[in-house]
Description:
The chain has helices at residues 15-26, 40-50, 59-66, 81-89, 105-118, 132-143, 160-174, 272-288, 298-317, 331-338; strands at residues 6-11, 30-36, 55-56, 70-73, 94-97, 121-124, 149-156, 180-188, 202-209, 214-220, 237-242, 245-250, 255-259, 262-266, 321-322. The protein is built from ten helices and 15 strands. It has a nine-stranded mixed β-sheet, with helices on one face. It has a six-stranded parallel β-sheet with strand order 3-2-1-4-5-6, with helices on both faces. The radius of gyration is 20 Å and the shape is globular. Strand 13 (255-259) and strand 14 form a beta hairpin. By secondary structure, the chain is an alpha/beta fold. Helix content is 35%, strand content 23%. The site of nicotinamide-adenine-dinucleotide has 23 residues, from helix 1.
Amino acid sequence: MFMTSYRVLVVGMGKRGxxxxxxxxxxxxxxxxxxxxxxQSRLDAALAKLGKVPADIDASKLATSLKxxxxxxxxxxxxxxxxxxxxxxxxxxxxAFEKPIAxxxxxxxxxxxxxxxxxxxxxVSHQHRYGEHxxxxxxxxxxxxxxxxxxxxxxxxxxxxxxxxxxxxxxxxYNGSADASWAMAQAAGRGKxxxxxxxxxxxxxxxxxxxxxRGIVECGAGAPDQPEVDAWWRKNRIGAQGTDGFAEVLTGSxxxxxxxxxxxxxxxxMNYDLDMPPYxxxxxxxxxxxxxxxxxxxEFAYQGFEIMMALCRSAAEGGxxxxxxxxxxxxxxxxxxxxxxxxxxxxxxVSVKEYA
Length: 356
Ligand SMILES: NC(=O)c1ccc[n+]([C@@H]2O[C@H](COP(=O)([O-])OP(=O)(O)OC[C@H]3O[C@@H](n4cnc5c(N)ncnc54)[C@H](O)[C@@H]3O)[C@@H](O)[C@H]2O)c1
């Protein structure tokens, strides 16, 4: 059967943008018709890997002239709304962009409205879930081997705007994508509030899911080491506990499970070369067929981001925060105003360098 290929424009030629462009190029369902980067040197370096592709430092000019089917952008967290607007203006049917979806709930709500009003689909790159070890844990949970799942959890050493949306996305997935009804958290450490990924250095809290399952999550300086994992950014553990056992994944070192019938473990490590191809393929699947909604669709990422912002609100204001959020706010501004200036305490000496 003849299958059309979707025309893609990729904006931002940093680490993630170039990787997206190469992954789209490798999939026959896509044709990379243009790339853009504000720096000519980055553009040149990208073209050396991508071959002959129309390129311009002016993303707006390229988007308007190319009219792509897919508008992809991979920029720092502070650069979201203008590129969502450009993607919509370009006439694209789908916008693919990077986590975190925004830096405040107010901005996330603005993006949601822009996408809903325009009817443009969007996906957000929470692609770890394609790892064989992440999928194995999901398979064990959904097989019922853990009995009644009562708890999902995630612990990540990297700071919030880098890692917390990943943590929540996979926890919610392991909990059958249930809605959340409230969240509560504490935060510590001002050292990363002005980072490119602005964050408290440590945030830890609870999530009440509507199906009664408890979520427990922590992210940053106070999180424990996962000694089985070598690479620092991959010292993350996400899993589920039930009445009959547990199953969990280590981002950088496989999976393990203990149930009534025994204990098992297996390999796997986060790997763009393995995780991105199915993420990209499912973009084509969703464009082909409305019913094949992408597992990384914006609506799921939005729900996770809401939880993340509720945790921040709780850390700034105290108490429990009801979900879904009913109005937007600037949670990082509140944290900048309210977070005490005591030095953050570490969960492990492996994090000394990043939180010096
Ligand atoms: N999903 C993942 O596994 C994963 C991994 C790493 C990073 N990320 C996310 O990807 C995003 C990008 O990270 P990166 O590592 O590629 O960063 P990077 O610094 O390598 O690249 C960012 C690019 O954005 C461009 N840019 C900056 N401001 C811009 C603007 N106003 N308009 C157009 N382009 C602009 C820069 O020139 C650069 O090319 C971040 O949100 C980050 O959190 C995701």
